[in-house]
Write a structure and sequence with these properties.
single chain; alpha/beta; TIM Barrel; eight-stranded mixed beta sheet; 7 helices; globular
Length: 268
């Protein structure tokens, strides 16, 4: 019998191997069924975060191999998603939320708006009442068609790991063209955003007081519905990165909530 092994990211952590994965127990969402509109043989992202569980993004400078796999056409992708939904429904698997995420940044999918509409239609057919959300790095939120798609969703969890461009360049390593001011404005113009911020220590660090102050000011600018603070719990791309202690995370969260009045929670 042929055994198919999972494709591993550059740090040895397996990539998602299909358009639908899980359900996995999320620290934030419960039983989450993931949607991956991206390739399954390499990471597809406009960030190259030093803490990413999938390792480094294939870029000329870091020599991470990239296969010839292409993005699936919309019809093929939605058919694969529907097939999985039918199976989970028939098997009676409990689903608390459907989360668009996957092997990189999902809003980079070329027809993301119609993909979103298709997923919502399938949700209504197979899992009525279950919320559909997204985990995004926020980089494309300024694009009108992406904003329109994001507004259709029930949950918008958007990354913001720092409030200054220097720190973002160091730990998120965005592709050229990223503009922090534009991104903050785009996030502010989205409805009911949840900001998700990861704090790290070791070879890279975004927990210095000035960095925290700048981040809190960025949160104040965005005015999200809530903020979620956490640290790494899977092998990062950079092996020198360490977890931030829970006491420090609580300190950051309490300071953010005190200064902004916005609910800030720690997930450990």
């Amino acid at each position: 019998m042929e055994i198919t092994l999972p494709v591993l990211g550059s740090n040895g952590y397996p990539l998602q191997d299909g358009a639908v994965y899980g359900p996995i127990h999320s620290r934030r969402f419960g039983n989450s069924l993931g949607i991956n509109p991206l390739p399954v043989t390499y990471k597809f992202c406009d960030f190259d975060c030093v803490y990413c569980q999938y390792g480094w993004t294939p870029r000329p400078g870091n020599k991470i191999p990239k296969t010839d796999e292409k993005l699936k056409p919309l019809g093929v992708l939605l058919q694969e998603i529907e097939t999985s939904f039918i199976k989970f429904k028939q098997d009676g698997v409990p689903i608390h939320v459907v989360t668009i995420a996957g092997n990189g940044e999902p809003t980079l999918y070329p027809d993301f708006f119609n993909l979103t509409r298709g997923i919502l239609n399938l949700r209504d057919q197979y899992f009525p009442g279950v919320k559909v959300g997204i985990l995004s790095d926020s980089s494309q939120a300024h694009r009108p068609e992406i904003k329109q798609a994001l507004e259709l969703l029930d949950e918008r969890c958007m990354k913001l790991d720092a409030g200054d461009s220097e720190t973002i360049e160091e730990i998120n390593k965005p592709a050229g063209g990223f503009n922090l001011k534009r991104t903050l404005e785009a996030l502010r113009n989205l409805s009911d955003v949840t900001i998700q911020s990861i704090f790290i220590a070791g070879s890279y660090d975004n927990t210095k007081q000035k960095q925290i102050d700048d981040w809190i000011e960025a949160v104040r600018t965005v005015k999200p519905a809530s903020v979620q603070v956490y640290t790494i719990d899977r092998p990062p791309a950079d092996g020198g990165i360490k977890e931030v202690p829970l006491a420090k995370l609580n300190e950051i969260a309490e300071l953010c909530q005190k200064r902004t009045g916005i609910k800030t929670e720690v997930f450990d």
